Amino acid sequence: MNSLILDPDLPEAHRRAMAAHPELLPPDPQRPAWGGRTVGDVPAALALSALWAFLPLVLASAQHGRRRMLVAGAALLQAAVLAVWIRYGLTTFFLVCLAVQGVAAVVLLALAGESPVAGYGRRHHGRYVHASMLEPLDAALLRRTVDATDIVLRSPIDRDGLLDSIANRVTLPRQAWEIAETLTELTRLRREQDQARSGRVTERISTVLASQEEALTVATRALARRISALEEYALRTEEAEAVYAEWRTLQDLAEDGDAYRELLSRTVRDQLAAGEVGQLTERARHLEESLRDSVEQARLVGLTLLTREG
């Protein structure tokens, strides 16, 4: 699971791309020289451009997924260079392929460098927090936040609207982002303290640092309590989810009641068949009541969490 929290106000397309590939997000907001291209990109581009010039159909067919438009374009290019060979001879064919190779090399070098996700990361620097950006203690708290939030948002009872009054899809990402922002500030202050301690520490500096460290400890504990509340909500949601899964199974079984009644009536009295199916229906009713109680407990924990944070 990716220990990444994004600003919920980011463009949705950017959010999805960044969440899918957090490993591509850059640690530095400064754009690298040459757009992230390296010396190794030049020979790689030349090698691929040669293949595009002389054997475009073979190269396109080997691409992952074999996109139809790519293969079709490569087939046309392959037919064109072969037609040049047949019509004008080997020398002209070779010169045309060199020209195609030159154009392909320029295009491949233009496409090399940073991925779009890295570009989003630089554009939105400061609007995402990854565990690798934090001190170990703060990174652990971030992972707990991500885990608890994901449990709720991926839960079938939230997906099916049983917790819709809490507006989890809007509320939880914002709460997670607030926690991530606080963790970022805690990490910044911890690093400042470490830097101050690396120099000459006088008695007065030591006193100030001790006071600041106490403030950091208090703030960390308060934030940990907030994260614990999220985890309590996630735990209640998981408990309700287990009951919900059992209830849905029994509902499916109850829908087959007519088939079982007919089956039983063939071998025993109709009264026994009705009794058996009736017991199944009664179990489903009791479980439905249990599900209602479990979901209500989860909702109450979530509402308490929102009231406490509000």
Automatic annotation (TrEMBL):
Membrane-traversing stretches: 42-62, 69-86, 92-113
Alphabetical UniProt keywords: Membrane, Transmembrane, Transmembrane helix
Protein name as it appears in the record: Uncharacterized protein
